[in-house]
Every structure is written in structure tokens, then in C-alpha cells.
Design brief:
With about 400 residues, the chain is an alpha/beta fold. The chain contains 11 helices and 18 strands. The protein has a 10-stranded mixed beta sheet with strand order 2-1-18-17-14-3-12-13-16-15, with helices on one face. Strands 5-6-7-10-9-8 form a 6-stranded antiparallel beta sheet.
Length: about 400
Amino acid sequence: MCCRFMITGKEINLEDYNYDLPEERIAQFPLAQRDESKLLVFENGGIKDSVFRNIPDFIPQDSFLVFNNTKVINARLFFKKKTGAKIEIFCLEPAGNETVEVAFARHDFSEWICLVGNASKWYGEILEKEIYVNGEDCVLFAEKLSNDRGNFRIKFIWNRKDLSFSEVIHSAGLIPLPPYIKRRPENGDSERYQTVYADIEGSVAAPTAGLHFTKDVLEDIGRKGIGSGSVTLNVGAGTFKPIKAKNVLDHEMHFESFTVSRDFLQRLYDEAGKKIIAVGTTSVRTLESLYWMSVLNKQNDNFVLKQWEVYEAEKEGLPDFKSAIRKLIDYLDYNNEHYLNGSTGIMIVPGYRYRTIDILITNFHMPCSSLLLLVSAFIGDDWKKVYGFALENNYRFLSYGDSSILFKQNE
């Protein structure tokens, strides 16, 4: 694999990104108040301990924050066969090339790629589930169309054509908590496993770095004159996919779709030169992918960015961030389009050179995960210092855990 030599000159040993995470440190519930989570501040090699509601104090005046405004859907559906066997269907993404927006807007049927729990008990009959939508009865049907290595194509039909699939799944499903949260969803999760700025439906996992923000914190940031904008990246279940290969470079990264508006790109262009702050790893993937999609002329490839191709293109003399964004704006203007839709499989690993962001707000991630590798690529081996401090000072880990703000080291 040629990219091995273009990244580091050697293999990336997964075990180098392992650490001991006691089970009791994995947050099973959110705190009563979002912004009361602990905040670890890493800057210039030093660490400070604070509380998230104080994060405006640590954001430089000349900054621009980028949020992911995706909204988690009620992707977990439970059906019961006439025999009593329970079948769980986990909706991952619309089948075919259909966008989430189109799939949700359907009033007749909607086909999705799904994971199926207890699939061996589902022999092919059509499943039924009685639900209530807006106080009235509705019946949802699920038909298994095909199975591709555990990814099932499921056709959903419902008996009320006045309802969109968005309305149906909202009433029929449960919020899809991560697999390391060892409990069933509760009523409070419907609100707390969403950011306060969630707007566009489509994710099966939350962009968890944003869960700490409250309206008060956002207003405090705004009062400092700090600008912000939003991308939409639909977080897929692949974000929890473990790396099983001993050599990280043998891991197959998942793709995630995203949308950015022309207005957002214009703001990025206008704010170029300020410190770009990514709220969460999904915002990072989107921003870095935008840069490379411009440089690699991905308009000729439907804006699909593959896992390793950015490393193969790395060289001196590439365009700066502002020039890359200008090119994307010009493309949209030429084609009279207001949104750029793309799909990224980029895997950010140690040795990657960040092109867009200066500061990262993020939670604490699983050992040996692609997200931890992304963090390591940003702050180097200091990730060990950061995570060691968090473990020694009773930070809570993963989705409902505490937060950090990490400043990139000077290159």
C-alpha cells in the first residue's frame, strides 16, 4: 500500500494508541446541566482544569467556530413477530442514492440500509408495528429485501399516506444510544442526545462535542464578537466501528455524507486568517475534506473523497485554505447551486497535516479508535498527557462524558 510510506514511512501500530479505560469511567447518563461538564484545556503543552460553561474565556477573540447541526433520528425500531420473537432494526442510511431529506419526505414507502438484531429469526415475513402519530393509529410494515454481509435493505411502508416517513420514524423509533451505554434509552435522552442547535435530521449518532453547549454559552460566545457557522455531516454507525487491524493503515474507514451551504463557504472565505475552531471530529472531517475536494478537483467525482488519496496528493506548494474555499464558491456560482453535497471517507491518522483548523473541541474517545487517532494527529504524542490527566482527575469519558479544548502545536 503506497500510502504507508507517504504518511509516516512505516506502519502505524494500533497498540500505540491504547490506554486503560475503566468501565466505570464511561458516562452512562448525561449531567443534569449540559455546561457543568468538566473542561480540559490543552495549550502550549500545558493543561488547565475548568468547567465547560467557562469555555468562552478560552476561545481567542480572532476565532471562527464550526458546528455540525445534524440531528439524530429515532433510528432503533423494535418489531415483534407473531411467534413472540423480537426483531430490532437499526436504520443506517437511505438505500440507493437517495438523500436523507428525500427519504424522510416520502409518503408512500422508504427503503433503508439497516442492521438487524435477531436476524436469524426473521425468515422473510413482513413485520408489523402499531404506533400512534399525532394521537392517531398507524401501522408500520417492514419487508426484508436483501442482505449484503449483514447490511440489510429494508422497505418500510405505512398505512397513512398523510404522514411522512420522518413523522412515522419519530413516533415508531427510539434514540440510538451508543453501544457502550449499557441501558435502554429513557425519555430524557430524546433531548440530551441532541445538541441545542440540532436542525437537520439524518444522523444515527450525535456529534457529541456539541452536547455541552447551552444557549447561554452560545450567547456568551456571540457577545465576544466571535463568529460561527454550521455544516451538516450525517454521523453514521461506522463511527463506532472498531479498528481490528494491527496496522492502522489496513483499516477500512467508513464514509459519511455532508452538506455545506454557499453562505457557509462564503463566511469561511471571509473569516480566513482567523483561528478556525472545529466543534467535534465530524466538523474536522468536513472541513479537511472540503479543502482536499477543492485541491483534487472532486467536482469531477461527485465530491467523493476516498480514505487515503489525500496522503498520495500531499506535496509542497498546494493552495492555501482561503484559495481552496474560493474555488468551491466559484464552482457553486458557475452551476447556480446553493449547496455542496459530498461524501468523505478520509481517515486522519498521525502524520496527517491539518489544513484548516487551529483548535479542536472534543470529548474523550475510545482506546484504539479512529477518533483517538485523529486527536493524536492534531496534538501528537501529547494525547497521552491529556488522557492521563483526564483519567487522574475523574473526567467522564465518551459520548455523555466531559470535554476538552485542544490547541494545535506550532509546526
